[in-house]
Amino acid sequence: MTRRGRQTRTRIVEATADLVLVKGVRATTLDDIRAATGASRSQLFHYFPGGKAELVRVVAVRQTERVLEAQRLLLDRLDTWEALHRWRDAVVAAQRDRQCAGGCPLGSLASEVAEHDERARALMDSAFDQWQGLLTSGLRAMQDRGELRADAGVEDLALALLASLQGGLLLAQTARTTKPLEAALDAALAHLESLALRRPTHKA
Amino acid sequence: MTRRGRQTRTRIVEATADLVLVKGVRATTLDDIRAATGASRSQLFHYFPGGKAELVRVVAVRQTERVLEAQRLLLDRLDTWEALHRWRDAVVAAQRDRQCAGGCPLGSLASEVAEHDERARALMDSAFDQWQGLLTSGLRAMQDRGELRADAGVEDLALALLASLQGGLLLAQTARTTKPLEAALDAALAHLESLALRRPTHKA
DNA sequence: TGCATTATGGACTGCGTAGTCCACTACACC
DNA sequence: GGTGTAGTGGACTACGCAGTCCATAATGCA
């Protein structure tokens, strides 16, 4: 594959990721992608011989990279209670900016794909697994520094935190308010803080 | 509408609800419904002049009734810690029985419909609202009996619990394991118990 | 420069699916 | 028992969309 080919392929993947983010997998047609990229029909099948299904799987991987990258920025040095609360605020603000449309980029994708494409489902499973890992290592860092009880199961806590986020986003998407998201994250963080060794200092 | 008409209409709604539960909205075609009910094409449009979209909305209402009814049975007398844990176990068991396929009947529906049909979105919003109300009144009963701190915001707690459930189910559906669901619910219940006045007696 | 390989354009096909139409049947009510 | 309204059957239409094909253009390489 030549330089130009790689560029075209990349352009297709990025544009499709954007479209899927906004419209969902089902509602994103090959014609939409054509319109957004200027690519022709045959190019789509040239670069993704498996057709739309293959393209969707590549987009799933790309979308995972995007989200984890953004999370990494937010979660970098996630080893303080302040950082956790900043993360909470950032997630809520991001959802508000989108007018609560679309839910979680990965969650919506997973939900749309899980029962329909086994390979894509596995990719989303891996995506959540990596996300959980990101959260886990942050909590473990806090544990190592003595801010979290040593007997706290950080992996399960990270999983629960991720679930609260996903559920909160789904309810927020449905209600078109960030309120459920805030309630979910606040409860999850409160639970974490109840496992703190020293009481968090930044709160009342 | 005569007795026979009502029967046919009911048959269509019930069968479609079953199909949507298993296959999702998108994958359920009018031909599927025809096959499942023996109804003819024109009957579908006779009873639901708005076509598939209208039928889906009626099914959303029906599905909400079904879930809330089942929840009511599980949550009846949800005023003890034991009842909460029985509820947790029942939800996990139900998901395991389904091989973790399909997520939450209401959550999946909401996710599939929220960005595509405003009226259906509003129905699902109302569904979650009712569900939250069910959980809230249980928690409030516990509060009234002095088992939960009086300053606990039961409505937010109920919302957070619902979010944990939804997120846990989504992750379980994606991972094909009940583990995320268990982690999510256990963390949510642990948080509630940290707000108990007297320590729950049924646990260690 | 010439040949092979890769990239691109766009017409064409086929299919699944929602929705329409009209003829026919059964039932309720007078 | 006749008449009208509700119920039923199924062929037919329209259309959006995935996927195929082949011709042409650009690019890399010797």
Overview of this protein structure:
2 copies of one chain form a homodimer. By secondary structure, chain A is mainly alpha-helical. Chain A folds into 2 domains: 1-49, Arc Repressor Mutant, subunit A, CATH 1.10.10; 60-193, Tetracycline Repressor, domain 2, CATH 1.10.357.10. Chain A contains 9 helices and no strands. Chain A is elongated, with a radius of gyration of 19 Å. The interface between A and B is large, with 49 and 49 residues. The structure holds a DNA duplex (30 and 30 nucleotides).
How would you briefly describe this protein structure?
By secondary structure, chain A is mostly helical. Chain A has helices at residues 3-23, 30-37, 41-47, 51-75, 81-97, 105-113, 118-144, 154-175, 179-193.
Number of helices of chain A: 9
The profile of the biggest β sheet of chain A is: none
Shape field of chain A: elongated
**How much of the polypeptide of chain A forms β-strand, as a percent range?**
under 5%
Secondary-structure blueprint:
The structure is a homodimer of 204-residue chains.
Chain A: H1 3-23, H2 30-37, H3 41-47, H4 51-75, H5 81-97, H6 105-113, H7 118-144, H8 154-175, H9 179-193
Helix pairs in contact in A: 1-2, 1-4, 4-7, 5-9, 6-7, 7-8, 8-9
Chain A binds a DNA duplex (30 and 30 nucleotides) through residues 1-5, 8, 29-31, 39-46, 51-52.
Tags for this entry?
mainly alpha, Arc Repressor Mutant, subunit A, Tetracycline Repressor, domain 2, DNA-binding, 204 residues, 2 domains, elongated, 74% helix, homodimer
